[in-house]
Amino acid sequence: MLLISWNIDSLNAALTGTSARATETRAVLRKLADMQPDVLAIQETKLRATGPTKKHQQLLAEIFPDYEYVWRSSEEPARKGYAGTMFLYKSGLAPAVTRPKISAPEPMDEEGRIITLELPEVYISQVYTPNSGAELRRLDGRQAWDHAYCQYLQQLDQTKPVIVSGDFNAAYREIDLAHPANNHHSAGFTDEERADFGQLLQAGFTDTFRHVHGDVTGAYSWWAQRVRSAKANNSGWRIDYYLVSNRLADKVIRSEMVDTGERRDHCPILLEIDL
Predict the structure, then answer these.
(1) Exactly one of 38, 157, 167, 176 is catalytic; which is it?
(2) Contact (CB, 8 A) for 5 and 125
């Protein structure tokens, strides 16, 4: 099974935008379609609460023929057009779909951050973890989210194995970002966020990239969009992950990043697993 996950930073812009960046993003989206993943997870869709417009639906059908899709958008009292997730999957899969609430601090449960697909042999879930924000204003809420989310995955894992991907907004180890010494108080690399991610691994989940590649350095999934030299200098962070239940770890064939050329921000990540 081939799975891909990507924080796209606005599906609307990717599908309908006319800027140079939108063109770059659309090219990546078509590249992913050519790879024919069984399941594609997309975070930060930024769609309205009613989901894809008719225009979006037409373009998705053009780029991803023979795929079905499900979405979850931000709803009141959360901000409109904020966060959001979507799964595209090959038509023959026919998963059961849930959009869980995990009793996170308001309004995180209404920000469209989790979707889970249930297949006969496995759960496939995705997450767009809340960012702790400027001056770490949202760090306390983020920690509450982390603990509730860990419990949610543990509950799934008690029933059947789990594959979960997404933008976890956490670089776990110093080798997961280019400049750790300068970022110990930055959102995504605080002691609290790293400890919470470690607890998630200790709860029975494997970081598939490290499982395959060990302590390789310089492998990142995000480069600051506002820093023009970030990608060229590989000044990045690894904050996007495919995690699997420990009992699936030895079934992992590939876990890697998908090249996006000069486009900054997140790159897609890929998991190939023999179920």
Answers:
(1) 167
(2) no
Convert the pLDDT of each residue in 212-231 to its tens digit: 999 999 999 999 998 989 99
CA separation for the pair 157, 143 (Å, rounded): 21
Cβ neighbours of 172 (radius 10 Å) = 22
Instruction: Judge whether 263 and 21 are in contact, CB under 8 Å.
Output: yes
Fold of 2-273: Deoxyribonuclease I; Chain A (3.60.10)
Whether 167 is catalytic = yes
- DSSP notation for 12-60: HHHHH--SHHHHHHHHHHHHHHHT--SEEEEE-----TT-S-HHHHHHH
Question: For residue 62, how far is the Cα from the chain centroid?
Answer: 24
Interacting residues of 69 by C-beta distance below 8 A, sequence separation 6+? 52, 60, 86, 87, 88, 89
d(CA 57, CA 29): 15
Regarding pTM above 0.85, the answer is yes
pLDDT in tens, 127-179: 999 999 999 999 999 999 999 999 999 999 999 999 999 999 999 999 999 99
Known active-site residue 220: no
pLDDT value, residue 124: 98
Please, what's the b/e burial string for 227-264 (b: 16 or more CB within 10 A of its CB; e: otherwise)? Answer: eeebbeeeebbbbbbbbbbeebbeebeebbbbebeebb
The residue annotated as part of the active site, out of 123, 128, 149, 242, is 128
Burial class (CB in 10 A: 0-12, 13-18, 19+), 154: middle
CA dihedral 240→112→79→60, nearest 10 degrees, is: 80
